[in-house]
Specification:
This protein has 191 residues and is mainly β. The N and C termini lie far apart (43 Å). The protein has a 9-stranded parallel β-barrel with strand order 5-7-10-13-16-17-14-11-8. It contains no helices and 19 strands.
């Protein structure tokens, strides 16, 4: 399947995949991605206050050139079965909501594109791995409960980072590219 999709409730399931050039997740009804692979190739938004569940090895791919804009304080929750994953080669950003938007422990997040926290906090409760691309603070914050693993790309911008960082190859630019900035750490571990 290809095209546009407004997801206002229910379950996408089965050992299939869909590539969407537009995705709008809205309303206050819980949605579930079960086993299926969802490929976003264009613009996507998540609004409303409902959670999004991922179960049975479901995969959400934000493809190169695509943007997924989190405009809620809701959580992507983990269901039963094989571990699901979110793979970002495009842009995963938070631009509204003011509070925290979380991805639950057990959902692996891999970034080769751009992660941008512009409003509130993006919280990664499970694994976060960046091999290239950028994680940027644009006035918001990024937090995690395990270790934020950087083996390439950049960590940049002005905002708050809360958690342990393992940096084996990324460039750190407090304030952003070409901007004056400062960095600091309180507790935790940076390697």
């Amino acid at each position: 399947q290809t095209g546009s999709f407004v997801w206002s409730g229910g379950t996408i399931s089965g050992a299939s995949s869909a590539t969407l050039n537009a995705l709008n997740i809205d309303t206050n009804t819980t949605k579930l991605l079960d086993t299926a692979t969802l490929n976003l190739s264009g613009a996507g938004t998540w609004t409303g206050n409902s959670g999004l569940g991922m179960t049975e090895g479901a995969i959400f791919n934000i493809q190169n050139g695509a943007t997924f804009d989190v405009r809620t304080n809701a959580t992507i929750v983990l269901g039963a079965g094989a571990a699901p994953a979110i793979n970002n080669a495009g842009t995963y950003k938070k631009t509204a909501g003011g509070g925290a938007s979380a991805i639950a422990a057990g959902i692996d997040f891999t970034n080769t594109g751009t992660v941008s926290a512009g409003n509130g906090t993006l919280t990664f409760e499970g694994s976060f791995t960046q091999t290239r691309g950028a994680a940027g603070l644009a006035g918001g914050g990024i937090s995690w409960q395990s270790v934020l693993n950087f083996s390439g790309g950049e960590l940049r911008g002005a905002g708050t980072i809360a958690g342990n960082v393992s940096n084996t190859g990324a460039t750190v630019r407090p304030g952003g590219t070409g901007a004056a900035g400062s960095g600091g750490a309180t507790g935790g571990t940076a390697t």
